[in-house]
Amino acid sequence: MRAAARSSPDRQALEAASEWFARLRDDRAGADETRQWQAWLSASTLHRQAWDAVMAVSARFDAIAGQAELDALTRAGQGRRRVLRAVALLAGAGGLGAAAWTQPVTRRHLADLRTDVGQTRQARLPDGSRLWLDTASAVDLRFDAHVRRVVLIDGQAMIETQPDATAPARPFVLD
Question: What residues does each domain of the chain span?
Answer without folding.
Answer: 1-105, 106-175
